[in-house]
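Below is how a single chain appears once it has passed through the pipeline. First comes the sequence as given, then the structure the pipeline wrote out for it. We keep one example in the README because the format questions we get most often are answered faster by looking than by reading.
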Amino acid sequence: MILINAENKIYGRLASDVAKKLLSTDDKIVVVNSGLIIVSGDGTLLLKKISDKRERGGKGNPLHNPKQPRYPDLLFKRSVRGMLPRSPKGLNALKRLTVYIDVPEEFSKNLEKAVDKKNIEHTTLNALCKKLGAKLKL
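Resulting structure:
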């Protein structure tokens, strides 16, 4: 089992690293602190992109619109899913990924501290998901 602390890691880089590890190994991968992932920039572009997808209606029935997650763990898992191939190998790789918003007790002992990234303009995934309407306890 590979444990990854996502605190202060950049969103796209972390997602691509996790996708590569899922395809190259047969181990389970657990990502904790997904709410503290950094989205570089002010996040308004990503917020607009996600909210536009969520508000898009279907042709005849408005309930047939694309389903977009609004919680940090599901949003991260969705981005990793987009980086995996659409084959049985990619499906099996996605089944081995587990993402948590916080740190569960069983993983808190093995967790190492992440390095701060203070020199870039950023927002966290928790703040972005709050704006999307997620009911998070911060």
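The two ends are 28 Å apart (CA to CA).

See the next section for the split statistics.
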